[in-house]
């Protein structure tokens, strides 16, 4: 095989990407200097599980059959697991802490309205600043570079390199 | 130059010394502290008025009713106040967590407040 063949060039490109991959994968976390607070995902899971459980109970109220009982039972288990997972987590950011207070206040209103605990949670939630609108995460520089390199390598493999060079030229 | 006697270093040193004083002043200015103290005092007075209460004693009943009203007023006043400092917010969370654990232990609200207070403690001092 000629050392300048398209396959060799593509192979070199692949090797370059493979050798750079650990750095590219590690970079977003290190470069950003912060990781998303896992409490947000746990809250979403608990909300989803709560809604699924409520729906299953509604169905059970209408269709009193074995299948509906099994679905409701599974939904109850999932709800319990999601709540336990949430209780085991501690928020790592202020936003996460505020989201947790709002979630518990909302939950207490549904589960145990007008109780002193529910009212106390509501007071705390009412005193919190408005939550920031959910922002779409911007891909990190490393992630964008990884996409560009991947696209270029794929193009080089398909066309022999000229289109890849042309694409890089357009990018910079 | 007027500022010449004050070197940059001495100004920075003074600012560092003033920091805790200013923070303490800001905390004292947060109205939630006074409202929490008032709610605590009213709660203690109500507990005292209710302990060994002789329901046949009109005077004791009158004092207990007055203490219950004062407790209710203090709680309502506290509910209307939003903390203006991080320290005030922490103290309010702690107050509610302790209060609900005493009033209705092991309920959903008590456990949720316990978790929130623990999360705040884990974040370290404000």
How is this structure best described in words?
Chain A has 7 helices and no strands. With 172 residues, chain A is mainly α. In chain A, helix 2 runs antiparallel to helix 3 and helix 6 runs antiparallel to helix 7. Chain B is mainly alpha-helical and 126 residues long. Chain B is 77% helix and 0% strand. Chain B has 5 helices and no strands. Chain B is elongated and about 75 Å long.
Give the uncertain stretches of chain A in residue-range form.
5-10, 16-33
**Mean of the pLDDT scores of chain A?**
74
Our Rg estimate of chain A from Cα atoms comes to: 26 Å
Strand content of chain A: under 5%
Number of helices of chain B: 5
Distance between the termini of chain A: 33 Å
- Secondary structure tally: strands of chain B: 0
Question: Strand tally of chain A, please?
Answer: 0
| Biggest sheet details of chain B | none
Query: Helical amount among residues of chain B, as a percent range?
Result: over 70%
Oligomer type: heterodimer
The low-pLDDT segments of chain B are none
Q: Name the biggest interface.
A: A-B, 22 and 26 residues
- Gross geometry of chain B: elongated
Tell me the structural class of chain A.
mainly alpha
Question: Tags for this entry?
Answer:
heterodimer; A: 172 residues; mainly alpha; 77% helix; B: 126 residues; 5 helices
Compile the SSE list and pairings.
The complex is a heterodimer of chains A (172) and B (126).
Chain A: H1 6-32, H2 38-62, H3 66-88, H4 94-111, H5 116-126, H6 141-159, H7 162-171
Chain B: H1 8-29, H2 31-50, H3 58-79, H4 86-103, H5 108-122
Quick structural summary:
The complex is a heterodimer of chains A (172) and B (126). Chain A has 172 residues and is mainly α.
């Amino acid at each position: 095989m000629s050392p300048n063949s398209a396959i060799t060039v593509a192979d070199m490109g692949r090797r370059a990407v493979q050798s750079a991959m650990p750095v590219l994968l590690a970079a977003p976390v290190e470069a950003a200097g912060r990781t998303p607070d896992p409490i947000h995902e746990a809250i979403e899971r608990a909300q989803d599980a709560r809604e699924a459980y409520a729906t299953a109970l509604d169905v059970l109220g209408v269709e009193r059959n074995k299948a509906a009982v099994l679905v409701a039972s599974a939904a109850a288990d999932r709800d319990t697991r999601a709540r336990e997972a949430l209780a085991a987590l501690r928020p790592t950011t202020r936003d996460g802490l505020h989201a947790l207070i709002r979630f518990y206040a909302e939950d207490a209103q549904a589960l145990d309205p007008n109780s002193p605990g529910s009212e106390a949670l509501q007071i705390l939630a009412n005193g919190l600043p408005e939550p920031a609108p959910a922002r779409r995460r911007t891909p990190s520089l490393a992630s964008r570079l990884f996409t560009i390199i991947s696209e270029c390598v794929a193009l080089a493999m398909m066309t022999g390199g000229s289109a890849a060079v042309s694409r890089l030229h357009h990018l910079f | 130059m007027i500022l010449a006697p004050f070197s940059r270093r001495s100004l920075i040193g003074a600012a560092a010394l003033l920091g805790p004083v200013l923070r303490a002043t800001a905390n004292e200015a947060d109205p939630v502290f006074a409202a929490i103290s008032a709610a605590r005092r009213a709660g203690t007075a109500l507990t005292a008025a209710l302990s060994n209460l002789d329901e046949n004693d009109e005077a004791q009943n009158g004092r207990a009713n007055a203490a219950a009203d004062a407790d209710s007023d203090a709680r309502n006043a506290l509910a209307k106040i939003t903390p203006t400092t991080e320290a005030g917010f922490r103290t309010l969370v702690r107050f509610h967590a302790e209060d609900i654990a005493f009033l209705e232990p092991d309920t959903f609200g008590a456990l949720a407040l316990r978790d929130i207070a623990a999360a705040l403690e884990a974040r370290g001092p404000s």
